[in-house]
Batch of 3 targets.
Target 1
Amino acid sequence: VKKPGEKMKQGVRQVGHLYHPETLKQKGLLWSSMLLLVTAIVLLGLLGWYWSQEPEAPDMQLITSKYIDDSSHQVVGASYTATLIVLGETLLDKRGGYLSNDVMPPGVWLDNIPNWEFGVLVVLRDASAALRNHFSRSQSQSIEDKSLSRAEPQFNFQNDSWIFPATEGEYRDGLEELENYIARLVDPQQQKAQFYARADNLRQFLEIIEKRLGSLSQRLSASVGQERVNTDLAGDSDARQSTGVPGTLRIKTPWLELDDVFYEARGASWALRAMLQAIEVDFDSILRKKNAVISLRQIIRELDGTQQSILSPVVLNGGGFGVFSNYSLTMANYISRANAAVIDLRSLLERG
């Protein structure tokens, strides 16, 4: 049994150990490390929030003036091509740069902006393919432009490659080819680079837009789950498909993918709105002849609604007429109306 004096000495030694210089140094290092870690997490969070801010809508006047010196001389196709270039540059040079292939924080933690980027990228791919295959060619037997034939495959490179080669490098190569094309397009001495504003090639591009918007609308509407009748073969009694499916389908977007679809639709709508504004400039005579300018502007107006400010920090997913709103259904409403207007516009262009 320890004597009282020995217990007191042992207590003094323990207290002395707590205040020993080496112990104090270790605790100081621990607290400093924790403080640095917390500070780093906060700074990365703030940087991630800053990078997650969506870019402003492109200014059409600034876009056109960048590539055309004399604004009174509007070169057909210059607005379309210039807008295509600006979309690509915005994708790569916005806040934080291109984030879909980031492997380091905070970019690797972000989810919404990479999906927004993919929506923009899909429109960029569709518009560049239309430029290569339709707008720059007079007939189906005409020779395609060499710059456009090199540019279009570059944008179809995988969107998340971070090295060997990096996605950004491939997309910038495509933008350089588009800049080469527009430089020849606005040069009166260059006659090989052409852009044909005709009703038939505009209808072909609108058909692509129609399918993109229809797909986004269906995916957004599936946020609450739906029972859908299978209409895949409707309208053709002789139609067949490779694999049989039930007559009624249950469609529902997984909960963790709701914000992915929402921001992809938001990015696609942002890019598509800019492309349609360019089409209004380049196809002005065609649209006025068909009395279709108002129809095009109505599509742009509906897409404007998809870019309203988001008040909630998360994508709300209320069901039906419940207490909470459903952002996906609201977005689907705007896109569905825009899609219906695209169908009407394409039908109007077909009637001669």
Target 2
Amino acid sequence: MSKRQSVILSVVLEGLSQADTARLYEVSEATVSRWVFRYRADGEAAFEPRSRRPKSSPTRLAEVVIAEIVNLRGELTTAGLDAGAATIGWHLKDRYDITVSDATIRRHLIAAGLVIPEPRKRPRSSFIRFQAELPNEMWQTDMTHFRLADGHDAEILSWLDDHSRYALSVTAHDRVNTTIVVERFDKTAAQHGHPASVLSDNGLYYTARFARGGASGPNRFEQHLTDLGIRQKHSRPNHPTTCGKVERFQQTLKKWLTARPRPATIAELQGLLEDFADVYNSKRPHRSLGTTPTIAYTRLPKTGPTGTNPQLRVRHDRVDKTGSVTLRYHSRLHHIGIGRPHAGTKITLLIDDRDIRIIATNTGQILRHLTLDPTRDYQPQNTQNPNP
């Protein structure tokens, strides 16, 4: 018998006063009165506490949205694409203009049995990561193997922009060699511009520094980069995490390929690679960016081997609650008005002496483009067009 039931029966059946019952069971008289009143109204249902669940939940997701979360999980998983909460949230916003938090999406995936809760992992913010500040500041490149339907071992050569994770070129070959590396590099550069630097592992088609103790001199690719004024970088031997972005790209690529019928020829594989590059670049968000690689690659000016923007500084900030951002120029602080509607927005500032562009980091929208007036502490919005 529960304490609640004992209290009620003491008053109703035994005839104890509510005050005596309250002292006996060490509860307040108000509690005794409330329980007895409910018993006389609801009968034995009063022996159990009422549910505290609210009668309505205004913020609860509509069933159609919950169903779409589940559908997207299955659709993305079947396609061999990332199907995490952040990616599902991006597709909800992109397709239906519905904003749902990652935590809410994850909660419904767990409720549907599609995600198994795991112990809390080390936060991403605790990892030390490098990312180029501008597009074409550094390209990463690597080769990976893929077996065709007839058992033939093909090789895939990838070129990835470090800043935006944009897949610049993904091509299939029988065997990758230095000639192919140079040819693909030149074709990619003709389309996207030359990078300031290239990062790769120590494959012999990238470098000859480990061939015969490095006594053979630079190979054709090394010499080609030197002639173009492009800096060449290499990962340490047995340390693949240095080229982690392109390594992770290849994992995503192979997961996507595995979800499809295995190609029988190099030409069929190349067709799949082109389809994948389109999906990867433009039709899904990159988890590290919060947007697509295409947007990340095109929203900022490109640099190059000779420093296309040698004086350009890049700074990341957030619009303050007054709708402005602070910038120091020649030891003097200046406040640049952007607008209160943008308060809290993450921004990227491109600073070329007094020429300043302020860009919304997540969308790539130019919020303000101005020439700083060093005689004024505050740069009001109406002095120049914020979107020239």
Target 3
Amino acid sequence: TRAVLTTRDGRCSGYGTGPAGNPTSAGPDAAMAAMSTAAGAAARQAEVSLDGVEAVMVAMAGVRTLLDPADLARTLGFTGPLGQLRTTGDVAATYFSGTVEPAGCVVVAGTGSCAGQVRGGVVVRSVGGSGWLLGDGGSGFAVGHAVVRAVVAQLEGTGPATALTALLLDDLGIAHDGALTADGRPTALGALVPTLYRGRPVALARYAPLAFAALGDPVADGIVAGAQDALAALITAVRADAWVGPLVMGGGTVSGGLLAPGVARTLALRLALEGADVRLVRDGAVGAAALALTAETSRLDDAGLDRLRAGVEALRTA
């Protein structure tokens, strides 16, 4: 969860982060706590008090249906009129992190995945976003889930050997010395299974980077290829009907692997991206700030968006 504090003229003065807080997967209380942590950190960096903030834009998946504006205001310490506390989805924030154009397409692949068409500055069509149980192809969860299943399959003897096994067990501090229990079960597997089940299912997304770290391993390559094909399906769906405008793509799974330099792309992904004006973005907080400023003043131009992007990057680095 990230927060950025800006002045009315688009100068970024504070940037803060908090834990993961999607209200759908983590619950409203966790989302509130995460936003409070991130906003508080941004305010401390800017050396201001949140009760002096004039307007708030909260961009988060599920925010409109799961979080009450009055509760949001109390959590954030916002004392202004509730009409000055606005909400939107993470898809819109990602889109306006990459462009000021009022029409185009956006694909987000982070822990989950979704896509949208934008027209007149608003999202008019959504694809995906069904969550880890029903969809989220090409997401961090999908990749991480495939990683742990591949490791379990090797340890069980039902799947091929893979470099992912050593990476995952080392990450979790589980020995992989080939020892067996009295009933012939690998002791590493006996330790791995309860460890993974103790976390929330969506937390498997944290293991997605292992697939990219193991590229060159046939199993890891297959997992990444499958995720790229799923991403291609999202792109194809939102680019249907000869939709014009840029294609903005963001989320940790996009920037962290699926479209990273040097990562080979599947035929499906190459075809889906053919002719697209792709804009890769790193931080949806840029778009949230852009939307906040647009609501308070007027539509940003390219220079204004560049200024916001540079400001967020500088504060994040600091």
